[in-house]
Amino acid sequence: MDFSTVLIQTMNGLQYGLLLFLIASGLTLIFGIMQIINLAHGALYMVGAYLAFWLTALTGNLFLAILLGLPLAALLGVLIERFLMQALYRRDHLDQVLMTFGMILVIDSLRSIAWGNDVHSVAIPALLEGSIQLTETLEYPVYRLFISAVCGLIALAMYGVLQRTRLGIVIRGGASNREMVQGLGINIRVIYSLVFAAGTALTAFAGMIAAPVSSVYPGMGNQILIIAFVVVVIGGLGSIRGAFLAALLVGLTATWGAVLVPEYAGMAIYLLMAVVLLFKPRGLFA
Amino acid sequence: MRPLPRTIRYLLLALTLLLAAFPLFGESLSGEQHSYHLQQLTHIMILAIVALSLDLLVGVTGMVSLAQAAFFGIAGYSLVLFAPEFEAVNFWLALALCLAVSAAAALLMGLLIIRTSGIFFIMATIAFSQMLYYLFHDSAFAGGSDGIYLFLKPEVAIAGVQLLDLENPRSLFYLVLGSLVLLYLLLRTCLRAPFGRVLLGIKHNEERVRSMGYNPLFYKLAAFVIAGTIAGYAGMLSATQYGFVSPGQVSWQLSAHALVMVILGGMGSLFGPILGAFAFEGLHQLFAGLTPHWELPMGLVVIAMVLLLPRGIAGLLLQLCSARKAKPADDAALSTAVAVNKETSV
Amino acid sequence: MNNYKKIASTLGSAALTLALFGNVQAADPVKVGLLLPYTGTYAALGEAITNGMKMAIEQQGGQLGGRAVEYVSVDSEANPGKAVPNMQKLVDGAKVDVVVGPVHSGVGMGAVKVARDSGVPLIIPNAGFNAATGPLCAPNIFRTSFTSWQTAYPMGQVAADKGYKNIVTVAWRYGFGTESVEGFKEGFEKAGGTVSKEIYVPFPDVEFQSQLTEIAALKPDAVFVFFAGGGAAKFVQDYAAAGLQGKIPLLGSGFLTEGTLAAQGQAAEGVLTTLHYADSLDTEQNRSFRDAYRQQFGKEADIYAVQGFDTGLLLAQSLQQVAGNTEDRNAWIAAMSQAHIASPRGDWSFSKAHNPVQNVYLREVRDGANQVASIAATALADPAPGCKLQ
């Protein structure tokens, strides 16, 4: 393997990692900050992808679709939080597991009724269609670079809001101590709705923006569910920086695993997680 | 763990007797479909054993594991790989092997991950289960992704005398029912013994258990190995019933379904998860028979049950008992039976 | 006198039996069990097979051998772990006369197990795992689709004829993927080529960037791939986005471009695949089949619809021959194994192992459709190693 291939594979790994961070970003809020075990994360990601497909078909433009889809996803998040999750905060965490399991079934069924079971794709916006020549035979699509940039921006924005603003302090405080935040005269219910809606919108956004490279098909949510949890857990709960670095680490492991030990590529990221938890039982950056 | 209210004990006894009588009288009830119902009930009871084993971890000790399918599957694969192709394998040898393999796997996994807790423990169990899944899925030695057959069911004999003919669905049904009842009673007894009290204590307050001079890690590891071995036994029964194992039996989805059965049935009550297994599979059968979009009603019912039955089916039953009698003594029984959930959730 | 009486009474009772039997048969519909995925990733395949099969039976008058038809469907969820209980639900629960299914090979293993044990006829309308009509073949097991080998082997000769010497393969690491690659490799090596590297991707991962980088670095004469559904859509798009389209020819088993062309768009142009069907086959049967399907279901037929349609034809033809008598399984099975199906894919009949002996077409994607370039293999039979029926 020559040096340029090594370089390109490493870049592939980092780029995949950024994509994974995007996929897991909503979960870092809902699970990492609010500590809700949201099994429906994959289903909401799928909803985002189908929204992108549907709204792009209607409007003819992915960016317009995202603009329309984001409020819809946020609204869905508010509704789920208000009517389904709110009743469970004072109960055992496992009731949330059961609730979100039920949600997977309902969402998947509604998806099948509304949009059918076929494989779809979403066109890359004309603006971002080109590609960059890397080697004599290999090109790199601009849209993937665009996704990477978006991921970086989201990571920065999340970090900024949660670590540097008053709202962020309240949110992080509310996650670890409901009563205390409430004692400060802050309406914790609104905060929870807000965070859950933001988490849902982020998850759907990930589905929408990744739709042109991921294709849109039933079952696409199942595939990302576990890996999103892997990213958040390796990073350590509640840490945006942790999730970001963990995503890059997982991306590199999956990519280099496929190159170096293809027979065991499927196991690579789980081995990584097992090793991390063995030495750091609370994640890398807790 | 205190004794159950009398009504519930009678209810469980009646349900068990009804089940036991099914092979004898079921034919007049379900006619042609009798043999199918027999298979289906056997299948559900095997899943109930898995749910029961998981309750020892989730409901009793407070360890949420998604590795039950790993032990279930590895025992099933052990049976199939160990059995010769054209000859029935000796049941006792196979049993010893399957239990040993699942116990060893649980011990090994447990030693590595027992220090983690909460969600990190869940993810650690997923990590090892997924590695095992890919081992079976990606390598050719056990049939790869398509799975592998067991051609002849194990032979249950002592000194050449056949005790049970497992090829006969009725015998298998009774073997599974007997196993389920025995394991339930065994676990209940176990929980009343000092060992069980320590486990319950760990869920309430691990620090206190430590300060009383017990090593919680040892007890958690013991519970993990016991639960894994029981799941392995269920896996062996399942491989025997179907004569077919595939990576699906090792998947985390199967573990998740077992967890859903436990929560649906009512954590920590031991009998709840068994009812949960029947409810979960029953609802699935019911809705799948009605519409191809069975996921919709099924999902809605699950959501309604979470909202309306905070302590699962077992909690509902216990509440009904205490409401009917409205005696303080029964309230005490209720509160101890489900105290575990209350304490951790507030 | 005595003799006469005897004969009369024998005749009488025979007539009575016939009348009773006939009555029962006329009153009872033929029960057709469907073990197909109706939810999840493979739901579209289950739907297409069901549509195709029902359409074929409706075109034959809506009856099978003079009896009405009753369908009992079970959602397989494409879950091998539930394959045996789901199959038992049909065989022991609903007491179906025949099971049609499944789509997924792992489920197929479970279904074949129950079929072998119970003797109920099983007609596989998709799942291509070689074993079903190989080592696990049985008199009551039929397949109206293909074996993984069948759809990949002919591409070996095609690739060699194109002058490719050195090929890299990429596939999901699971039964269908490895069997397809092995089939291709056998054909290609027999024709003098070399497979220089077999790359496998964990199933069902769809991140292909590192494999594409590897291909670009290896610069083989061509690439042979096996993916299906969402993975196929994504691989072909990624292949083009990586700039490999047009530089290194992309070959595949036909599933690469089945049901995914709309999603793949321009990226699929020029891809060569081999399969036992192509939408654009210019035959009378295919045209009328596709018109009827479009009219009835409002969408284009695909390979899965064809396989379902042929399953319907097989049921109609064989039951016609035995006058709707499903009780005499041996006669019915014999009728099925003799069947000649005038299919939209071209005429075919069963091999001794009960897999179609059929043409495999070389298709090229042009203007968003699989255009038939030539017949890659005429009346190709799967060698069915290990099958004792032959």
Explain what the structure shows.
Chain C: Residues 29-368 form the Leucine-binding protein domain. Chain C: This is ABC transporter permease. Chain A is an all-alpha fold. Chain A has helices at 3-33, 41-59, 62-85, 93-115, 142-164, 166-176, 178-183, 188-214, 220-235, 240-260, 268-279, and strands spanning 131-133, 139-141. Chain A has one domain. Chain A is globular, with a radius of gyration of 19 Å. Chain B is mainly alpha-helical. The longest helix of chain B is centred in the N-terminal third of the chain and has 28 residues, at 34-61. Chain C has two domains: 26-146 and 281-350, 3-Layer(aba) Sandwich (Rossmann fold), CATH 3.40.50.2300; 149-275, Response regulator (Rossmann fold). In chain C, the strands form two sheets. In chain C, strands 6, 7, 8, 9, 10, 11, 12, 13 and 14 form a nine-stranded mixed β-sheet that branches. In chain C, strands 2-1-3-4-5 form a five-stranded parallel β-sheet, with helices on both faces. In chain C, helix 4 (105-118) links the parallel strand 3 (98-100) and strand 4 (122-124). In chain C, helix 2 packs parallel to helix 11, helix 3 packs parallel to helix 4 and helix 11 packs across helix 12 (329-337). Chain C is globular and about 65 Å long. The N and C termini of chain C lie far apart (53 Å). Residues 10-25 of chain C have low confidence and may be disordered. Classes of the chains: A mainly alpha (286), B mainly alpha (346), C alpha/beta (390). Chains in contact: A-B, A-C, B-C.
Chart the SSEs and their pairings:
The complex is a heterotrimer of chains A (286), B (346) and C (390).
Chain A: H1 3-33, H2 41-59, H3 62-85, H4 93-115, E1 131-133, E2 139-141, H5 142-164, H6 166-176, H7 178-183, H8 188-214, H9 220-235, H10 240-260, H11 268-279
Helix pairs in contact in A: 1-5, 1-8, 1-9, 1-10, 2-3, 2-4, 2-8, 2-9, 3-8, 5-6, 9-10, 9-11
Chain B: H1 6-30, H2 34-61, H3 68-82, H4 91-113, H5 118-138, E1 148-149, E2 156-158, E3 161-164, H6 169-192, H7 194-204, H8 206-211, H9 216-242, E4 244-245, H10 252-265, H11 271-290, H12 295-308, H13 312-325, H14 328-345
Antiparallel strand pairs in B: 1-4, 2-3
Helix pairs in contact in B: 1-2, 1-6, 2-6, 2-9, 2-10, 2-11, 3-4, 3-9, 4-9, 6-7, 7-9, 10-11, 11-13, 13-14
Chain C: H1 2-27, E1 30-36, H2 43-59, E2 69-75, H3 83-93, E3 98-100, H4 105-118, E4 122-124, E5 141-143, H5 148-161, E6 166-173, H6 175-190, E7 194-202, H7 209-218, E8 222-226, H8 229-241, E9 250-253, H9 261-264, E10 272-275, H10 284-297, H11 303-321, H12 329-337, E11 340-343, E12 346-350, E13 356-366, E14 369-380
Parallel strand pairs in C: 1-2, 1-3, 3-4, 4-5, 6-7, 6-8, 8-9, 9-10
Antiparallel strand pairs in C: 10-13, 11-12, 12-13, 13-14
